[in-house]
Design a protein that fits this description.
Elements (H helix, E strand, L loop, with lengths): L1 E7 L4 H12 L2 H5 L1 E8 L6 H7 L3 E4 L8 H14 L8 E4 L8 H6 L4 E5 L11 H7 L4 E8 L9 E8 L6 H26 L3
Parallel strand pairs: 1-2, 1-4, 2-3, 4-5
Antiparallel strand pairs: 5-6, 6-7
Helix pairs in contact: 1-7, 6-7
Bound molecules: 5-O-phosphono-beta-D-ribofuranosylamine.
The site of 5-O-phosphono-beta-D-ribofuranosylamine has 14 residues, from α1, β5 and α7.
Length: about 200
């Protein structure tokens, strides 16, 4: 069985979309894949409770408990490895996970790491994407599912969604429009990887 481990920091709506897709589309029998765990770096991440209610293992690794990024990432790597099921290492899905991973962690998990970013990459890497898209006068915005490399919000693009930026939009309304599309493209990207056996 291919384990999937989802990393969150907050509400976890992308995590929930992935879990629902795995349930409704029966990824276990179709692709031999299951969501084995949800890991948060914040104890107050709202998504943890929802995941528990789904019967999924949850774990908090609070980043402030560690002296530096390398130590946090070492603990994270150990936790992730513990959810492996069989020979394949877990697929690691970053879903609103607000920590930058060290190059060492990224290298050790090459090919396993996927992220979703709320902009049309390569535009607007980093934070405050919606404010910046509006300030730049963009007519369209969107989200990107991509592989994770050592460079923030870089890496091969797997899926993108596009939404219009409307004249009255503020960052909040644009974020909500983009987020709804994230819930479609993230499961689609993972489904394609699993179907291709490329995870
Ligand atoms: C999403 O917009 C995601 O792309 C970004 O942070 C937000 C997290 O939302 N990185 P959620 O926790 O999945 O609801």
């Amino acid at each position: 069985m291919q384990s999937i481990v989802i990393l969150i920091s907050g509400g976890g709506s992308n995590m929930a979309a992935l879990v629902r897709a795995a349930q409704h589309e029966d990824w276990a029998s179709r692709y031999g894949a299951r969501v084995a765990a949800v890991i948060s770096n914040r104890v107050d991440a709202g998504g943890l409770r929802w995941a528990q209610e789904q019967g999924i293992a949850t774990q908090t690794i609070a980043h402030q408990d560690f002296a530096d990024r390398a130590q946090f990432d070492a603990a994270l790597a150990q936790a992730v490895a513990s959810y492996a099921d069989g020979a394949k290492p877990p697929l690691l899905l970053l879903a609103g996970f607000m920590r930058i991973l060290t190059p060492g962690f990224v290298q050790a998990h090459a090919g396993q790491l996927i992220n979703i970013h709320p902009s049309l990459l390569p535009a607007f890497t980093g934070l405050h994407t919606h404010e910046r898209a509006i300030a730049a006068g963009c007519k369209f915005a969107g989200a990107t599912v991509h592989r994770v490399t050592e460079v923030l919000d870089e890496g091969a693009i797997l899926e993108q969604s596009v939404v219009p930026v409307l004249p009255d939009d503020d960052a909040h309304s644009l974020a909500a429009r983009v987020l709804a599309t994230e819930h479609v493209i993230y499961p689609r990207a993972v489904r394609k990887l699993l179907a291709a056996g490329l995870s």
